Amino acid sequence: MMHNMDGSVWAGLAGTLVGTTIGGGLSIWASVVTQNRQTKTTRDLRIEEKAEASANEAITQLYVIKQRAHDFPQERGGWEAWQKELGRLAAEMEPAVLRLRDDALRERIEEVLGYMDMIYELTDYTAHGGSLMLPSEVCRYGLDCLGAAVRNRPLPAPSQALLKAREIDAFEQERMAIVREEADRYASLEPGESSP
Fold first, then answer.
1. Cα dist from 3 to 6, 13, 64, 130, 167, whole Å
2. Tell me, what's the pLDDT at 144?
């Protein structure tokens, strides 16, 4: 047999029911938020691990290039093969460089690798700081950049070797522009006309 309940009992039951519903909803919401955070943290950790693996792979490959750049041939006859090998090693490293997440790091390493195609210029232009050791020193700077990235440190300022390589590159670009200009001027001459 039911007794008549007064309004305060009904209000208490309704409050308990509403409180239980809100509490349950908040508990479910908190579980979903926690699970999403854990999923994001796990995903971020995997991305970070892949980035570190890419940087470590790039370090290994650039170290090989540095060693090969240091072992320059004693006779000029072997220079062409030496330069080709450095170019091949630099090209093989490109996939690892593309996986580097940091844009500034990737640009610096691409710059370092680009100089491996300028072996003659880096070694011959002594007036601009070129030397037999410059290609290896440029690679050393690239290794310093990769090492800083692995340790979550800022990238180092351009080294003296990199600045010398940039200067040689700018000189070579200017020289090539003059050569092209001369060739264009020569090509535009009428037959029998001589260059001024």
1. 9, 15, 90, 103, 98
2. 96
User: Backbone dihedral region of 192: left (phi > 0), alpha (psi from -120 to 50 degrees) or beta?
Assistant: left
What are 71's two structure tokens? 């072992």
CA distances from 101 to 33, 81, 140 (A): 28, 33, 21
Q: Identify the DSSP state of 77.
A: G
- Residue 186, Cα to own-chain centre: how many angstroms? 43
Residue 2 tokens, joined? 């039911």
Q: Which letter does DSSP use for residue 136 in this model?
A: H
Q: How far apart are CA 85 and CA 83, in angstroms?
A: 5
**pLDDT single digits (tens) 87-136:** 899 999 998 898 888 999 999 999 999 998 888 888 887 777 778 899 99
Ordered by start, the domain boundaries in the chain are 20-187
* Token pair 């908040």: residue: 26
The ranges of the chain with pLDDT < 50 are 1
Residue from 158, 76, 85 nearest 116 by CA: 85
Instruction: Please give the model's pTM, rounded to 2 decimal places.
Output: 0.69
Q: Are 104 and 87 in contact (CB under 8 A)?
A: no
Picking from 47, 34, 163, the residue whose alpha carbon sits closest to that of residue 101 is 47
